[in-house]
Amino acid sequence: MTDELFPRERGEVAPGAVHVPGWLGIDRQRELLAACREWARPPAGLRTVHLPGGGTMTARQVCLGRHWYPYGYARTVVDGDGAPVKPMPGWLAELGRAAVRDAYGEAVAGADAGDSSAFDIALVNYYDADARMGMHRDSDEKSGAPVVSLSIGDACVFRFGNTETRSRPYTDVELRSGDLMVFGGPSRLAYHGVPRIHAGTAPSELGLTGRLNITLRVSGLD
Ligand SMILES: O=C(O)CCC(=O)C(=O)O
Ligand SMILES: [Fe+2]
After folding, report:
1. What is the CATH T-level fold of the domain 11-217, as seen in this structure?
2. Which residues hold Fe cation (predicted)?
3. Atom in ligand 1 nearest the alpha carbon of residue 138
4. How far is CA 170 from each of CA 13, 40, 56, 167, 222, rounded to the nearest angstrom?
């Protein structure tokens, strides 16, 4: 997957939305995968998210720092086993800061929007071959700081849209294992989703079937 003739290049998908291919080396991906496996254990482990309309999310989720549920944040798994949410590790918050620095550098809109020095939430989503995530906005935070998204395992189609509607215009980006997406500034509240997983494309040395996405956010909550 990574040995193609022309290296994949970083790109600004929309103003303030930056894709950095291959940001995480394979060793870092392995470490993150091992950490996700620990976080996924109960209590407050990987769970199926039930939506208010009666549906369920096909991506399963575990949260760190604050527990996300439709649609808000809590300190315990209010819609699951009731256990306290696992803490947000300092090293993961630091990885988020490094991601924002590397994605934005100086010259991109959104580089200084919000305070990215305080990543206090991580949402880990696990996708099997048939899982998806519908178009949505990350709008339950009270901070304008950018969202950092790390991908591990199977590649996927990541659909990045606009702030007005769930539909077009949008851009489809292929996110592969190790890729970084940061969206902030004018794109902080853009609709986005994952319409498709490319099953079986995870790097074999990882030993993962499926896709993990780690989304780092600043809650802006007390
Ligand atoms: O899996 C992804 O790449 C996106 C996850 C996402 O949008 C979310 O957790 O809010
Ligand atoms: Fe999201």
Report:
1. Jelly Rolls (2.60.120)
2. 136, 138, 192
3. 10
4. 9, 32, 25, 7, 34
Which secondary structure element, helix H or strand E, spans residue 73, and what is its range? strand 72-74
Joined together, the tokens standing for residue 81 give 């086993």
Distance CA 82, CA 43 (A): 9
Residue 143 near ligand 1, beta carbon < 6 Å: no
Complex ipTM value: 0.99
100 CB burial (10 A radius; 0-12, 13-18, 19+)? buried
177 within ligand 1 shell (Cβ under 6 A): no
Dump pLDDT digits (tens) for 124-140.
999 999 999 999 999 99
In contact, 182 and 149? CB cutoff 8 Å:
yes
Q: Where are the domains of the chain?
A: 11-217
The residue behind tokens 């909550």 is: 221
